[in-house]
Specification:
Blueprint lengths: L2 E8 L7 H17 L4 E3 L17 H18 L6 E10 L2 E10 L2 E7 L23 E4 L2 E7 L8 H7 L4 E6 L7 H12 L5 E5 L1 E4 L2 E4 L3 E3 L5 E4 L6 E8 L17 H19 L5 E5 L3 H14 L4 E5 L7 H14 L2 E4 L3 H15 L6 H22 L2 E4 L3 H6 L12 E2 L6 H14 L5 H5 L19 H13 L4 H5 L5 H13 L1 H5 L25 H5 L1
Parallel strand pairs: 1-2, 2-3, 7-8, 8-9, 15-16, 15-18, 16-17, 18-19
Antiparallel strand pairs: 1-14, 3-4, 4-5, 6-7, 9-12, 10-11, 12-13
Length: 543
């Protein structure tokens, strides 16, 4: 048996930034080597970033990746005695592979090709890659290591096959995105499939479009017990001793830091905003405040992500906006120290009403007039964004987007929908959690009945069921594929269920035009939700 100091490079890569990612890998190697590591493990596809998507169809990108990989191989030789396992794309005559190379002393001593290619939910790997079929076992500092990439470990026999070939421990390279409860799922997977071998599980960190990678790398002993847990949502290069024979005294090491689900979701949303803004070349964000809960929560997230000096806000009251809404919005902005301005839209609404009066003659007022207000605000937000160079963060939540309780080209305008996968009930829970850390959201915003304030005395519950009921129905339908009959069988009112599911169905066209936003649940609107807009399958969805 043996002991090896393993460097676990939990790094934040950027898709397509080959030179930048190579520099991060080298920096991690330097830090690990200085810390006594004899083995360095990077995340899955660390050199290209993940998911690389259709960049992989571009020959020039693949050629540049091959050149960068050769350079990286040579540069890693500078760290004497360090073996490095690096995730990348293998560009071979037979096709593309999601791969990992083992470099030692300037030589490649092994190449592993991912075998289990996920093709569900947010994953689409079979579009790009061929599956490998050969295990890889190599020696580092006297210990035999098997290699797996992400879901390969789930495959029955993967670790067992490596053990039969002499492996004394497993290295698992991952680009595993965050969702609620994902940490425990990873641990259980490793415990179930590790074949009695210690495991170093290295996961990437960072926001990439809709996906948030939380890191949370860990090491297990031969009994599948977690003996080291890296932090979530932080870059780190951790050097830990992997002992092929030891067993942890505490089977849940590091559990306390992962037990607060609201803290995890907050960390995911903050990281998603920080990386989306930064990785798209922006430095500042702009938020339209309403004095309501959603925009207040987005503001708090944005300040935690970017700093108050990089966040601007604008309040755009109409004749239906309550004075307390303006007061609360101003109070929160001033309390956080962000830039705040007010632009009254009453005169603009009147101008629209006048211009449209001949066309609307004899017709009763309805949601048309409400939407005009939202679209005026959207135009003002985008004008301010264009002039200032700040990126607009939209403020709608998952419950609203599911039911179409949002206005195209109005409150939906913007580049990044921070709460796109956050149901309204979770919005309130997150607000209370954040205020428990330090009070940033005025209590009245949390306690007031939610309202779009687009007509007199309006509340959300004029048009929607209570949010606890609505969100429970939506979760069953969206995340668990339950039809109306199955949801009603759980005790929900049949008329309410059918009404909610109808709203979901007829609002698909809006969701197709919505800004992207970070995934935090098992199914978010976006790449993991692909229903046709023109669809007649009402029985399958509602039956």
């Amino acid at each position: 048996m043996g002991r090896v100091a393993v460097g676990m490079a939990q790094i934040n890569t950027r898709v397509g930034d080959l030179a930048g990612n190579a520099a991060k890998i080298l920096a991690a190697a330097a830090q690990a080597h200085a810390g006594g590591a004899r083995l360095l493990v990077t995340p899955e596809m660390a050199l290209t970033g993940y998911p690389t998507e259709d960049l992989l169809f571009r020959p020039a990108f693949l050629s540049e990746q091959d050149r960068m990989l050769e350079r990286l191989q040579a540069d890693l030789a500078a760290f004497e005695g360090l073996t490095a396992v690096v995730g990348h794309v293998s560009h071979e005559s037979g096709g593309l592979f999601n791969a990992a190379s083992v470099f030692e002393g300037g030589r490649r001593i092994g190449l592993y090709r991912k075998q289990e290619l996920p093709n569900y939910g947010v994953f689409d790997e079979r579009r790009y890659f061929r599956a490998g079929d050969e295990p890889l076992v190599f020696e580092a500092d006297g210990v035999q290591f098997g290699v797996a990439i992400c879901e390969d470990l789930w495959k029955e026999g993967c670790a067992y096959r490596a053990r039969e070939l002499g492996a004394q421990a497993m290295l698992v390279l991952n680009a595993s995105p965050f969702t609620q409860h994902k940490v425990r799922e990873r641990r259980e997977t490793v415990r179930r499939y590790s074949a009695g071998l210690p495991v170093a599980y290295v996961n990437q960190i960072g926001g990439q479009d809709e996906l948030v990678f939380d890191g949370g790398s860990f090491m297990t002993d031969a009994g599948g017990n977690v003996c080291f847990q890296a932090p979530q949502f932080e870059e780190t290069v951790a050097v830990r001793m992997l002992d092929t024979d030891a067993r942890a005294d505490d089977a849940q090491a590091g559990e306390d830091s992962l037990s607060d689900m609201h803290a995890q979701v907050w960390g995911a949303l903050v990281l998603a905003v920080r990386d989306y803004v930064g990785k798209t070349g922006f430095s500042r964000a702009l938020i339209g405040l309403s004095g309501g809960m959603d925009s207040a929560l987005v503001l708090a997230i944005a300040v935690d992500a970017l700093g108050a000096e990089n966040v601007g806000t604008v309040m755009m009251p109409s004749r239906y906006t309550a004075d307390i809404s303006t007061h609360d919005a101003r109070e929160m902005a001033e309390g956080l120290g962000v830039a705040y301005r007010e632009i009254a839209i009453g005169g603009l609404v009147e101008a629209f009403d006048t211009a449209l009066a001949p066309a609307f003659a004899g017709l009763a007022a309805d949601t048309t007039e409400e939407n005009i207000q939202a679209r005026i605000r959207g135009n003002l937000l985008m004008a301010l964004s264009n002039k200032s160079g700040a990126l607009v963060l939209t403020t709608g939540n998952k419950s609203e987007l599911a039911t179409g309780y949002c206005t195209l080209y109005g409150d939906m305008v913007g580049a990044f929908a921070v709460l796109k996968d956050v149901p309204k009930t979770l919005v309130y829970a997150l607000a209370r959690w954040r205020n428990a850390q330090s009070p940033v959201i005025p209590v009245r915003i949390i306690e007031r009945p939610p309202s779009a304030e687009l007509r007199p005395d309006q509340t959300d519950q004029d048009s929607l069921p209570p949010y606890d009921v609505l969100d429970a129905i939506l979760e069953q339908h969206i995340e668990h594929d339950a039809c109306a009959g199955a949801i009603v069988a759980q005790g929900y009112d049949a008329d309410t269920v059918h009404r909610v599911l109808r709203l979901v169905r007829i609002s698909e066209y809006k969701r197709r035009q919505a800004a992207i936003g970070p995934n935090i649940t098992s199914r978010a609107f976006g790449r993991g939700w692909r229903l046709p807009v023109a669809c007649a399958a009402t029985e399958a969805l509602d039956g």
